[in-house]
Amino acid sequence: MKKKLMMIPGPTPVDQSILDALSKETVSHLDPELVKILKETLEDLKAVVMTENGQPFIIPGTGTLAMETALVNSLKEGDRLLVVSHGFFGDRFVEIAQSYGFEVEVLASEWGKIVEVEKIAQKLKEKIFSAITLTHVDTSTGVCAPLKEVGEVVKGFPETLFIVDGVCATGGIEERMDDWGIDILFTGNQKAIGAPPGLANLVFSEKALERRNSLGKISAFYMDVNRWLPIMREPAGGYFSTHAINMIYALHQSLKIILNEGLEERFRRHKRFALAFQRGLEELGFNLLPSQEIRANTLSTVLYPPDIEDLSFREKLYEDGVLVSAGKGVLAGKIFRLGHMGNITENEVVATLSIIEKTLFEINYNFKLGAGIGAAENILFAN
Ligand code: PMP
Fold first, then answer.
1. β pairing state of 143-144 and 131-135
2. Alpha-carbon dihedral angle through residues 121, 122, 126, 132, given to the nearest 10 degrees
3. pTM for the whole thing?
């Protein structure tokens, strides 16, 4: 079978040097080489989220484990949590919080829109919330939250921890943890970071660590950051739970790729690729779900024109060589989701749009052949 272009919003294509790192010899968790690599990886994670004094944690698991870890170290039963939800992954915080008996209040937007920042400010003034969650990019809707602006608001409420889900953003869209007042920022491996899935990567501010201490005993053992803290501060220091040794090698290489590209350059590249896809698809007669100002640079959520049927389009596109994802929940059948984050290149952008045009041509969709590619090339080559 021909190799397909995997243009889904995670997992994203993995660079060969990362796969090579993954296949290095497995050593003891106390091996000096592993200790050195883990220390560097923890420092590089801090660099990617732009924090001086944040405390990184690299824990075997995925994004969902990171979500749960963030909550369970920030609140105790009966504490109040404000969830700002822009879709499926925002709503997941509600389910996690309910399973621990936290008091949850939700500010939810219509899917494809955002909650206005003033509404968040107003809500925080009504009563004390122990924490607020915000999903930087909700992968179900392709909406990018105004992280910096919300951070400015939350700074005015010192009792409230600002928890940010960066799973679909970190390493692809700017996140200034210290400057924007973020207390817990986390991501997985498999999206803009560009590694295979398997790690939950979190960074806690000093305030978030103090909060954990103030909670005393919590309803978690593996997810208790205080149990991981000595090992993360001094990886040579002993054992709490076995590291995912080879995954750490992979993450180490992924973060090196990010920092070698340069954060600013990497964010600009993600924006350029997003614009190329979005203008190209608009030229082909598709609309994007979110309005321009709140569109994510990591994925696009693309509305179907009335004459295109979701499943048969995606199946044909896959046969032609490109894998994209279906819509979730209320958006099922109405959109497809196209990922464009991590370590993809211009070649993949051009090839994907070209194959989309081929599929559209073959299903007799009415459009001008080359229009999408032309619009994309104007952005890719002229900027
Ligand atoms: N948050 C967001 C924004 C996500 O996109 C995802 C996964 N797609 C998750 C959390 C959960 O991550 P995982 O699937 O790695 O558990």
1. unpaired
2. -40
3. 0.98
